[in-house]
């Protein structure tokens, strides 16, 4: 049994010709460009990172390079796995879709490295369409309405916010001190848009309450965190 495994590791050393290697890299470059365009079209605003997008293209080609070197050599593949296992990546993934693109690049590179072109081409076409459709879905932005004023006007502030948003503004924080109070309400983008279309003027109404010092509206967005 040991001799069989030894012979298998010694003889399974398939060598690719120059034309096959060039064909593999050409296919990986084409698929990498498809992934590049998919990431560009499905991301917008502050979420889009040109450097990360370029890294996706390079990742596809590098994966193909590794697979070309390994080929059918079992011993070399085991050594490569051991060498790569010591690598630690510390880059934080800020968008869940980025993980999908990384796996897409690795899968495409592996397929091209073993000269399988139809599977990654068809699969990339399907994934491209899916990412275009679902990549257009925007995150539900949340807004924070921050109100600061004298403690004596706290009930008036609560009444104004409750009447304007009809209970759809969630009270997240209420800070109080001697003679001072601070409210932080969370609003959805849909609620805020509906209030604006109806002609509501929450800021002016709050400032109309004597004792209100500051009114701020802050947007919480996944794009901002990036």
Counting helices, strands and paired strands, the structural category is alpha+beta
Q: Compute the number of helices.
A: 10
- Uncertain segments: none
Helix and strand sequence: HHHHHHEHEEHHEH
Give the terminus-to-terminus CA distance.
55 Å
Q: Please report the total strand number as a whole number.
A: 4
Q: What's the multimeric state?
A: single chain
Report on this model:
The protein is α+β, with helices and mostly antiparallel strands and 226 residues long. It has 2 domains: 2-135, no CATH class; 142-225, Alpha-Beta Plaits, CATH 3.30.70.260. The protein contains 10 helices and 4 strands. It has helices spanning 2-11, 18-42, 50-70, 74-84, 96-113, 118-135, 154-165, 189-197, 202-207, 222-225; strands at 142-150, 170-177, 180-188, 212-220. It has a 4-stranded antiparallel beta sheet with strand order 2-3-1-4. α2 (18-42) runs parallel beside α6, α3 (50-70) runs parallel beside α5 (96-113) and α5 runs antiparallel to α6 (118-135). The protein is elongated, with a radius of gyration of 28 Å.
């Amino acid at each position: 049994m040991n001799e069989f495994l030894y012979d298998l590791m010694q003889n399974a050393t398939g060598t690719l010709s120059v034309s096959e290697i060039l064909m593999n890299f050409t296919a990986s470059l084409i698929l990498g460009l498809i992934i590049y365009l998919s990431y560009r079209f499905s991301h917008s605003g502050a979420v889009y990172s040109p450097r990360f997008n370029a890294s996706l293209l390079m990742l596809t080609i590098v994966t193909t390079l590794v697979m070309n070197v390994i080929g059918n050599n079992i011993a070399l593949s085991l050594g490569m796995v051991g060498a790569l296992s010591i690598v630690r990546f510390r880059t934080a993934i800020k968008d869940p879709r980025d993980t999908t693109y990384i796996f897409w690049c690795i899968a495409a590179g592996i397929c091209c490295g073993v000269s399988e072109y139809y599977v990654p081409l068809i699969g990339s076409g399907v994934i491209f369409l899916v990412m275009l459709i679902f990549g257009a879905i925007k995150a539900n932005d949340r807004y924070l309405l921050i109100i600061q004023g004298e403690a004596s006007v706290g009930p008036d502030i609560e009444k104004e916010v409750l009447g304007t948003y009809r209970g759809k503004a969630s009270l997240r924080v209420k800070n109080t001190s001697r003679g001072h109070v601070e409210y932080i309400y969370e609003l959805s983008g849909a609620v805020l848009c509906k209030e604006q279309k109806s002609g509501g003027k929450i800021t002016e109404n709050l400032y109309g309450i004597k004792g209100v010092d500051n009114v701020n509206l802050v947007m919480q967005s996944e794009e901002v965190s990036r």
